[in-house]
Design brief:
It is a single chain. This protein is an alpha/beta fold. Helix content is about 35%, strand content about 10%. The strands form 2 sheets. An 8-stranded parallel sheet has the order 1-10-7-6-5-4-3-2. Helix 4 links the parallel strand 4 and strand 5 (about 145-150). Helix 3 (about 85-105) packs across helix 4. The two termini are about 30 Å apart. The model has no long low-confidence stretch (mean pLDDT about 95).
C-alpha cells in the first residue's frame, strides 16, 4: 500500500479557522482530513477571506500534506431531491452554488454531498430532481471541484441508498467529470450490503458505477446490523462491522490513493481519531483502547 491516506472530520472554528483545522489534523497524525465550511445544520457562513485560508495552505505545504486529498463536506440540510417544498429546493440549489465557490476558495477539489430525500414523492421523482438540481448548479460553475455523492443508509425517504440509484444520478449529470461517489462503510452496511465481503462490494461498485468514480471513503463502524437503515456510527472495532473488515477497506489495493475519512463518535468529549488511525495503519486492534479516554 503505497498511497494510504487516513484522516478524520476536523472542526473549522475560530480564532484560527483553516489554520487551526490543519494544525488539528497534523496533531492527530493524519495525512488527509475533511471539514465543513460552517455549521452543517444551517446556511450561515463567514466570508472565506476571514478564514485564514492562506495560512492554512502554507502549513499544508510546509508539512508535506497532499492538498488534493483534503475534502469538504456539504451541510446535510441541502436537499436537491425535495419537490414538495419548492422554497427548500431553491435554497438548496442556491446554497450549493455558493458552497462550490467556497470550496474553490479553499483550493479543495472534492465536496461530499448527501443526495437528498424525495420526501414521499417517490424515488423516481426524487432522483430526477437531484439530477436537475445538479445540472442547474454544475452547468453554471466553471471550477474543477468535484461533487462526491454519498452512499446513504436508506432511512426514511433518503436517496442514494444503493449503487444503482447513484448510477442513475451520475448518468443524468451533464458534466460527468464533475461527479463521483463517497462510499460510507456504515451506510452501506445499514442499507443492506454485505459489507464484510469487501471484494464483493468493491467489484459490485466497479461494475455498476466504476472505481474511477470513487473519490472518498468514510471509514465508520456501525451500531446496527445489516439492513437496519439507521445510520448510527460506532467507533472502529466497537460496532457490528468489525475491525478486520474496516482494515480490509483501508488497505485494499484497489482503493489505494483514495482519501479515507473517519467520522466516529467522540469518547468522553474527546476525538478518538489518533488512536483509531494508529490501529488501522498498523492493522492491530487494541481491545482496551477506548478505556484510555
Amino acid at each position: 500500500m503505497n498511497n494510504l491516506y487516513l484522516g478524520s472530520h476536523v472542526n473549522l472554528s475560530g480564532p484560527d479557522y483553516y489554520l487551526g483545522t490543519v494544525k488539528t489534523a497534523l496533531s492527530l497524525n493524519e495525512n488527509c482530513f475533511m471539514f465543513y465550511t460552517g455549521a452543517p445544520q444551517n446556511t450561515i457562513r463567514k466570508p472565506t477571506n476571514q478564514l485564514k485560508i492562506d495560512e492554512g495552505r502554507k502549513l499544508i505545504k510546509e508539512s508535506g500534506l497532499d492538498e488534493s486529498k483534503i475534502v469538504i463536506h456539504a451541510p446535510y440540510i441541502i436537499n436537491l431531491g425535495n419537490t414538495v417544498n419548492l422554497k427548500t429546493r431553491e435554497l438548496a440549489i442556491s446554497f450549493l452554488k455558493e458552497e462550490l465557490k467556497r470550496v474553490n476558495d479553499f483550493h479543495v477539489k472534492t465536496l461530499v454531498l448527501h443526495p437528498g430525500s424525495h420526501v414521499d414523492a417517490g424515488v423516481e421523482v426524487g432522483l430526477k430532481a437531484v439530477i436537475d438540481g445538479l445540472n442547474e448548479v454544475l452547468d453554471h460553475d466553471d471550477s474543477d471541484v468535484r461533487i462526491a455523492l454519498e452512499t446513504m443508509a436508506g432511512k426514511g425517504s433518503e436517496l442514494g441508498k444503493n449503487f444503482n440509484e447513484l448510477k442513475t444520478i451520475i448518468d443524468g449529470v451533464h458534466k460527468k467529470d464533475r461527479i463521483g461517489v463517497c462510499l460510507d462503510t456504515c451506510h452501506i452496511n445499514d442499507a443492506g450490503y454485505e459489507v464484510r465481503d469487501v471484494d464483493r462490494v468493491i467489484d459490485e461498485f466497479d461494475k455498476i458505477i466504476g472505481l474511477n468514480k470513487l473519490l472518498v471513503i468514510h471509514i465508520n463502524d456501525s451500531i446496527n446490523g445489516k439492513g437496519a437503515h439507521k445510520d448510527r456510527h460506532a467507533n472502529i472495532g466497537v460496532g457490528l462491522i468489525g475491525f478486520n473488515t474496516l482494515v480490509n477497506y483501508v488497505h485494499h489495493p484497489k482503493l489505494d490513493g483514495i482519501p479515507k475519512i473517519l467520522e466516529t463518535p467522540y469518547i468522553n468529549e474527546k476525538p478518538p481519531y489518533k488512536k483509531e488511525i494508529e490501529m488501522l495503519r498498523n492493522k492491530k486492534f487494541d481491545p482496551n483502547w477506548a478505556y484510555s479516554f
